[in-house]
Amino acid sequence: MSEASEPTTPARADPLRTRAGLGRRAGRSEAPGDGVQDLTDRVRKFIDHQVIPVEREIETDPEVRAELRAAARAAGVFAPSAPRGYGGLGLSMLEQADVLEESGRSLLGPLVMNCAAPDEGNMTLLEHVATPAQRERYLRPLATGDVRSAFAMTEPAPGAGSDPAALTTTAVRDGGDWLIDGGKWLITGADGAAFFIVMARTGADAATMFLVDAGSPGLSVGRHIPTIDAGFTGGHCEMVFERCRVPSSAVLGEVDRGFANAQVRLGPARLTHCMRWLGVARRAHEIMLGYVVERELFGHRLADLGLAQHLIADNEIDIAASRALIRTTAATLDKHGRANNETSIAKTFVSEAVGRIVDRSVQLCGGQGVSHDLPLARFLAEVRPFRIYDGPSEVHRWAVARRAVRRYEAARRGGQGSAEFVTRDPQGGIRA
Ligand SMILES: Cc1cc2nc3c(=O)[nH]c(=O)nc-3n(C[C@H](O)[C@H](O)[C@H](O)COP(=O)(O)OP(=O)(O)OC[C@H]3O[C@@H](n4cnc5c(N)ncnc54)[C@H](O)[C@@H]3O)c2cc1C
């Protein structure tokens, strides 16, 4: 899972512009292919018939989890986001929209289908930024589900959080190696991860990403930070680096290009989070509908009482609006490889909408809604942190507002009237 928002350090060349766009990478299409509807149907059936009936057991029983992973492979729904050459289904962002939404209808769905955070985002990053040797060593076992990984950016105050430029973890050259020093926290999946993608400062305004193997001398994974959610394998952990020595081959991407290269992960990872959490919200909505059509109150079905209909309709509106934003953003990412403004808007809206949808569903289910007989209370806790990780809502709103003002000012300098200022660039993407 991620971590931070827009780096405030000066950006140089943009890796998403210098590399092929996300949708144009080998084996990926820009539009949903014919098979995606079929795949989406298979995922829905897999989640409904094989995952949801045992989801409580999966959490505590690793054997059930392993069996379900085998079942996901057999159903042809395993690793939808991973590249084809590495055993995945190689879906474009737009193709992932419905598939990942369906996977998210169970909290455990993405895990058994190997499209959960943080591995899914790390696969995207490795696919685009890693050397062929690094892809063999790290991406392949990640895509096959043999190992887990983590992305380590955030640090305790005063270090990197909403503002990645506050990064305090350092990496300095020592002969042909690098020595990493510093502390991280809230690192999802760190306990049990086979490797970490670590962001460290390598200059006044520069950072570099490193691939660090678990068990490297000088690296320790510490306390699980107790958080409101509980759905991520490997917890949200503290990490300490003390003269942690890594070879030069551990550099992921170019030295000093860490902030720019991290964008390869952050935009798509925010959107895939939106897809999965929308699935959770939809499931909450479905459970609520099941309750309101059965419950009789004041001589009517609950579903027919006006104030209840208001909540039901608002859920429908939030689901439809979230889906539309996810799709347009996914299409822009596929087409241009970059969609900073769209991902900020989608992430802010969807992270808040899923909270509203689950909360309304809890409300209409009454006492059962807050009990653990239904999964709704659990969903409420699981979706809340999404308004903070992947960039807090306030940071994204700040970025969206600054871009709007910049756009307006640029249009005015260009002689266009305020009513006519351009909101879309010639390629169809909202300007970042
Ligand atoms: C469950 C969970 C999992 C996580 N997993 C990972 C992970 O795997 N890897 C990783 O590196 N990090 C991870 N994080 C960390 C997460 O990315 C950070 O918590 C997030 O970036 C915010 O940083 P911070 O906690 O330091 O809060 P701060 O940076 O201290 O921000 C606090 C609050 O200030 C407000 N704020 C910030 N900027 C502005 C602004 N410009 N204007 C107005 N208000 C503002 C926001 O409300 C924000 O929530 C995870 C966090 C959580 C909760």
From TrEMBL:
Residues 256-404 form the Acyl-CoA dehydrogenase/oxidase C-terminal domain. Residues 1-37 are annotated as: Disordered. Keywords: FAD, Flavoprotein, Oxidoreductase. Its cofactor is FAD. Residues 37-146 form the Acyl-CoA dehydrogenase/oxidase N-terminal domain. Residues 150-244 form the Acyl-CoA oxidase/dehydrogenase middle domain. It comes from the Bacteria. Belongs to the acyl-CoA dehydrogenase family. Homodimer. This is Acyl-CoA dehydrogenase family protein. It comes from Micromonospora zamorensis.
